[in-house]
UniProtKB/TrEMBL annotation, chain A:
Zn(2+) binds at residues 74, 77, 91, 94. Involved in the maturation of [NiFe] hydrogenases. Required for nickel insertion into the metal center of the hydrogenase. The lineage of its organism: Bacteria, Bacillati, Cyanobacteriota, Cyanophyceae, Nodosilineales. Transmembrane segments: none annotated. It comes from the Bacteria. Belongs to the HypA/HybF family. Pfam families: HypA (PF01155). The keyword Kinase does not apply. Keywords: Metal-binding, Nickel, Zinc. This is Hydrogenase maturation factor HypA. The keyword Plastid does not apply.
TrEMBL record, chain B:
GO terms for molecular function: GTP binding; GTPase activity; nickel cation binding; zinc ion binding. InterPro entries: CobW/HypB/UreG_nucleotide-bd, Hyd_mat_HypB, P-loop_NTPase. This is Hydrogenase nickel incorporation protein HypB. GO terms for biological process: protein maturation. Gene3D superfamilies: P-loop containing nucleotide triphosphate hydrolases. The keyword Electron transport does not apply. Keywords: GTP-binding, Hydrolase, Metal-binding, Nickel, Nucleotide-binding, Zinc. PANTHER family: HYDROGENASE MATURATION FACTOR HYPB (PTHR30134:SF2), HYDROGENASE PROTEIN ASSEMBLY PROTEIN, NICKEL CHAPERONE (PTHR30134). Residues 38-200 form the CobW/HypB/UreG nucleotide-binding domain. NCBIfam families: hypB. Belongs to the SIMIBI class G3E GTPase family. HypB/HupM subfamily. Pfam families: cobW (PF02492). It comes from Vasconcelosia minhoensis LEGE 07310. It comes from the Bacteria.
C-alpha cells in the first residue's frame, strides 16, 4: 500500500508549511491533484489520510482530491486525444504511439485552506 | 466570523523520495557506478536473469547487487554464490523499494567495500508491476521484465511500468511453443506506450537473447563512463 507512505509524506509536507506560519492556523482542507495515469488510488489516499491525521494538527481536516484525465498529444495529427486507460494508448486516428502526455501524470499537493 | 485563506503549496507528492533518489544518484556518479533498477511482477525471472548476468559479466565488470526481498534472504543467497557483494534490504511488507531503503544498501556498500572500485550496481526491486514504477531510487536506467506467461495485455493494464522502462526484457521465451501468446503482440502493446524502449526477448534458461541483454548493459556502462570521468 504505497498510498500509506505517500500520505505520510503528504502530512509531513503540510506540517512543514504549517509550522513555518507565524501563528499555526487550523487547517480546513488539503487539496491534491492526482492524475489518472499514475499508480495512485484516490480512495486509498482518502482512507490513509483520515486514519493518519487522527489526533494530529490535521485532525478533522478534509482531503479534497481533484482527478485529472489522461490527455495525450499526437505529434503527427497535431491534436489532443484521450487514450482509453487499460486498453489503448496509441493515437486513435493515425496509430502513432503515445509520446507526449499533457495531463494525467500529476501527483501534487496543490493548496491548503486554513482559518485565521 | 472567521475568514478562510488559501496557501498555494504546489509540491510534488513524491518530492521527498525524489530528493532521496537524487542523493543516491549523486553518490553513484561520484563513485563512477552505473545503477540499473530491475522491476517486474513476482516470478518474471529477475533473480535468474541476475544469476546469468553475474556469471557472464563478473570477470569484466565489478558488480554489486542491492536486493529488495519481502522477508527472506533466499534471493540474496542465490546471488552471493556468484561471488559478488549482495546487500539484502528486508522490506517487510512494503510493496516497492524507495530511495531511502536503497540509500541503506549504499551505505553498506561504502562500509564493507571500496565503492569506487565498482562499475555497476543492480537494484532488484520488490516483485510488483505497479508502484516501483513511481519510486525512483537513483538509477540511471529502468529495466522491466515481462515473462511470456503473464500474457499480452499486461503492458496495457500496468502502463506506467512499461512507459517508464528504458529496457524491456520479454523473458521465458523458451515457453513460447506451449503458450498462446505472441511476442509480436506484446511488443505492439508496449510500443503504444513507449516508442523509445529497447526490447529484448530472452530466455535465461536456454541463453537465447542473453547476448543482446549483456551488450545493452555493457553499452550503458560504457556510455556513462564517458560522460562521468571516473576520478
Amino acid at each position: 500500500m504505497h498510498e500509506t507512505d505517500m500520505t505520510k509524506a503528504l502530512i509531513l509536507t503540510v506540517r512543514d508549511w504549517w509550522e513555518a506560519q507565524p501563528k499555526q492556523p487550523p487547517v480546513e482542507k488539503v487539496h491534491l491533484v492526482v492524475g489518472q495515469f499514475t499508480c495512485v488510488e484516490p480512495a486509498g489516499l482518502q482512507f490513509a489520510f483520515d486514519a493518519q491525521t487522527q489526533g494530529t494538527f490535521l485532525d478533522g481536516a478534509e482531503l479534497v482530491i481533484r482527478e485529472t484525465p489522461l490527455i495525450a498529444f499526437c505529434l503527427t495529427c497535431q491534436a489532443e486525444y484521450r487514450p482509453q486507460v487499460g486498453q489503448h494508448y496509441a493515437c486513435p486516428d493515425c496509430d502513432a504511439p503515445m509520446v507526449e502526455i499533457r495531463s494525467g501524470r500529476e501527483l501534487k499537493i496543490d493548496r491548503v485552506e486554513y482559518r485565521q | 466570523m472567521h475568514q478562510t485563506f488559501d496557501a498555494a503549496l504546489e509540491i510534488n507528492m513524491l518530492h521527498a523520495n525524489q530528493a532521496g533518489a537524487d542523493y543516491n544518484r549523486s553518490h553513484f556518479d561520484r563513485w563512477g557506478i552505473t545503477c540499473l533498477n530491475l522491476m517486474s511482477s513476482p516470478g518474471a525471472g529477475k533473480t535468474q536473469l541476475l544469476e546469468q548476468t553475474l556469471a557472464a559479466l563478473r570477470e569484466e565488470l565489478n558488480i554489486a547487487v542491492i536486493e529488495g526481498d519481502m522477508t527472506t534472504e533466499l534471493d540474496a543467497d542465490r546471488l552471493r554464490q556468484h561471488g559478488v557483494p549482495v546487500f539484502a534490504i528486508n522490506t517487510g511488507r512494503a510493496c516497492h523499494l524507495d530511495a531511502k531503503m536503497v540509500a541503506g544498501g549504499l551505505h553498506r556498500l561504502e562500509q564493507d567495500c571500496n565503492p569506487s572500485e565498482f562499475d555497476l550496481v543492480f537494484v532488484e526491486n520488490v516483485g510488483n508491476l505497479v508502484c516501483p514504477a513511481e519510486f525512483e531510487v537513483g538509477e540511471h536506467a529502468k529495466v522491466a521484465l515481462l515473462s511470456l506467461t503473464e500474457g499480452e495485455d499486461k503492458p496495457l493494464k500496468y502502463p506506467i511500468m512499461f512507459r517508464e522502462a528504458d529496457c524491456l526484457l520479454i523473458t521465458k521465451t523458451d515457453l513460447a511453443p506451449y503458450l498462446d501468446v505472441s511476442i509480436e503482440n506484446i511488443i505492439a502493446n508496449v510500443r503504444q506506450l513507449n516508442s523509445q524502449v529497447k526490447i529484448i526477448p530472452l530466455s535465461a534458461k536456454t541463453g537465447e537473447g542473453l547476448a543482446d541483454w549483456l551488450d545493452w548493459v555493457r553499452a550503458v556502462v560504457k556510455a556513462r563512463s564517458q560522460v562521468t570521468p571516473v576520478p
